[in-house]
């Protein structure tokens, strides 16, 4: 299976996918760690994909999304962005709105 087909099947099979460096328990870069913290804070169930396990995945995901860096977040098949975008969306409340609009379960932050 070509790498783009493999990545598409992962994105299609999961409501939320995080292509990251490392794992949620042991992120291998600060940016991946920040997105994991945000998703965990919101109680979002997601499929983590460790892009360090395979050079084919690490390079393929960048051309798949046409985005040069990791991490990369997908919601219901739609590419959202990397760490800076996810962080800004979280801080503004836009990420919670996007999750709600797509029918993805999450817990509302305290005071929201």
Describe this structure as you would to a colleague.
- By secondary structure, this protein is an alpha+beta fold.
- The chain has one domain (3-101): Glutaredoxin, CATH 3.40.30.
- Helices cover 46% and strands 15% of the residues.
- It is built from five helices and four strands.
- Strands 2-1-3-4 form a four-stranded mixed beta sheet, with helices on both faces.
- Strand 3 and strand 4 form a beta hairpin.
- The longest helix is centred in the N-terminal third of the chain and has 12 residues, at 30-41.
- It is globular.
- The chain starts with a helix and ends in an 11-residue tail after the last helix.
- The model has no long low-confidence stretch (mean pLDDT 95).
Q: Percent of residues in helical segments?
A: 40-55%
Uncertain runs are none
Provide the domain count. Answer: 1
CATH superfamily: Glutaredoxin
CATH topology: Glutaredoxin
Secondary-structure element order, N to C: HEHEHEEHH
Secondary-structure arrangement, i.e. CATH architecture: 3-Layer(aba) Sandwich
State the helix count. 5
Taken as a percent bin, the fraction of beta residues is 15-25%
Distance from first to last alpha carbon: 44 Å
Largest sheet: 4 strands, mixed
> What integer value in Å does the Rg equal?
13 Å
